[in-house]
Amino acid sequence: MNRRPFFSSATPSHATPKALYADLDAEFHFDFDPCPLSDAPSFDGKALSWTARRVFCNPPYGRTVGEWLAKAREAELAVYLLPARTDTAWWHDHALQADEIRFIRGRLRFSGLQKGAPFPSVLVIYRRTTEEP
C-alpha cells in the first residue's frame, strides 16, 4: 500500500491558525517564535538561545522536527504545534518527554489554506521546573 499521500503536503511550513495562536498566547503569554513564516531564509531559530523564553514553535514539518524539540528544555516554556505522528522517532525520543500533550480534535485549517490539514495535529508542551538546571 502506498502511504505517501497520508503524510504529504505541499510545504513543510504551515501558518498557525490565528484563532488558535490567540487562544494559546492568552494562556501562555509567548515572547518568542523561533519559526516565523517570512522571506528571511537566514533566520535560524534553532541557533538562538531559548533560555528564559516563553516559546511558541510551529516548526517545519519534516526531518528536523526532532532538532526543534531538542531545544525545548532550554526555554521557561515551549509550546509546539506539530503533526500527530506517533510512529516517528522524534515522537518517541522527544514528544513523549513533554510535560503535557494535547491532541487537537479534527483537522486544523492552517492560515491561507482552503481545506483542513491532511494530518491530525497536537500541542506538545514543556515547562521548566525548579529542579532543572
Can you describe what's shown?
With 133 residues, the chain is of the alpha+beta class. The protein has one domain. The protein has helices at 4-7, 18-28, 65-69, 89-93; strands spanning 54-57, 77-83, 100-103, 121-127. Strands 1-2-4-3 form a 4-stranded mixed beta sheet. It is globular. Mean pLDDT is 85; it is low at 1-11.
Descriptors for this entry?
single chain; 133 residues; alpha+beta; 4-stranded mixed β-sheet; 4 helices; 4 strands; disordered N terminus
Helix content: 10-25%
SS-based class: alpha+beta
Which strand order spans the largest sheet, edge to edge or round the barrel?
1-2-4-3
SSE order in H/E notation?
Answer: HHEHEHEE
| C-alpha Rg (nearest Å) | 15 Å
Multimeric state of these chains?
single chain
Describe the global form.
Answer: globular
- Note poorly predicted spans: 1-11
SS field, number of helical segments: 4
The percent range for strand residues is 15-25%
What topology does this entry show?
Layout: H1 4-7, H2 18-28, E1 54-57, H3 65-69, E2 77-83, H4 89-93, E3 100-103, E4 121-127
Parallel strand pairs: 1-2
Antiparallel strand pairs: 2-4, 3-4
Would you kindly provide a brief summary of this structure?
The protein has 133 residues and is an alpha+beta fold. The chain contains four helices and four strands, in the order ααβαβαββ.
